[in-house]
Specification:
By secondary structure, the protein is α+β, with helices and mostly antiparallel strands. It has a domain of 168 residues: NADH Oxidase (3-Layer(aba) Sandwich). It contains eleven helices and four strands; from the N terminus they run H-H-E-H-E-H-H-E-H-E-H-H-H-H-H. Bound molecules: flavin mononucleotide (FMN).
Length: 250
């Protein structure tokens, strides 16, 4: 197997890190890889905030719900959808850039930011580092906007902790390829197919442990009743919707 595929197929999230700073040249390679991805119209509609200062991590930690990975890694990268820089470029060149305060433009910028984020992850892992995403960046977006001093037309969409692994977990169980791949057109899921596709996951030792811990009969109920519940999703959707308006994306 070639080294690129080997890196990608060896991915598993790392949540414990050595107390060791990431070398400058490695950080630069990660950032270069992040900024060399495909991007809408080559506009590079993202910015990356590099956090190495532990005090800054501590300030953000409560809004990451005090997950250990918010403070135990030597490096946090926050990827923002960013139309601010391109709008400024247009303004300084006498171009009218009033076409980008809409959901289409937001979608482009989010896509660009996520491509940059995943490129950074693969680069970091190829250098022997471990990574973990912090989805919590998408919850209290208003707080991160304030702490990171994000101007209008900039909104955080992804956050990654990076460091030397201090654990070596096995690969995380995944659905079989057949679950995600459709040939030529979408092939919808019958109950029988869902049963087949989720069988291995449901019988996985990790799942058995989760069910016991949560006292619930399946993963679907753990996710919907405990992990990502309606009340929270509605509340944080409102926070996001307000932030998108305040940041002049919508
Ligand atoms: C958008 C996104 C948000 C995530 N947020 C968190 C998080 O807040 N905390 C965490 O420990 N892991 C987080 N993860 C990691 C996932 O839990 C992990 O990728 C998933 O369980 C699959 O495991 P693997 O990465 O080891 O293959 C996130 C992953 C993604 C893609």
């Amino acid at each position: 197997m070639n080294p690129t595929l080997n890196t990608i197929l060896s991915h598993r999230s790392i949540r414990k890190y050595e107390d060791k700073k990431i070398e400058k040249d490695k950080l630069e390679s990660i950032l270069k890889a992040a900024c060399n991805g495909s991007t809408m119209g080559n506009m590079q509609l993202y910015s990356i905030i590099v956090t190495e200062d532990k005090e800054m991590m501590q300030t953000m930690a409560p809004h990451h719900f005090n997950q250990p990975i918010a403070t135990n890694a030597p490096l946090i990268l926050t990827f923002c959808a960013d139309f601010n820089r391109f709008n400024k470029y247009c303004a300084f060149r006498g171009a009218v850039s009033d076409s980008y305060n809409n959901i289409q433009s937001y979608h482009w910028a989010v896509t660009d930011a996520l491509i940059a984020a995943q490129n950074a992850c693969i680069a970091a892992e190829s250098l022997g580092l471990g990574i973990c995403w912090l989805g919590t960046i998408t919850f209290n977006v208003d707080k991160f906007i304030e702490i990171l001093k994000l101007p209008e037309n900039v909104i955080p969409v992804a956050c990654i902790s990076i460091g030397y692994p201090a654990e070596n977990p096995p690969l995380t169980d995944k659905l079989p390829l057949e679950a995600m791949i459709h040939h030529e057109c979408y092939s919808d899921y019958s109950e029988e197919k869902i049963n087949r596709l989720y069988k291995d996951k449901e019988e996985h030792p990790n799942t058995k442990q989760l069910l016991t811990e949560n006292d619930l009969p399946n993963i679907a109920r753990i996710i919907t009743e405990k992990r990502y519940v309606k009340k929270d999703n509605e509340y944080f959707s409102q926070v996001l919707s307000t932030a998108l308006k305040n940041q002049k994306f919508l």
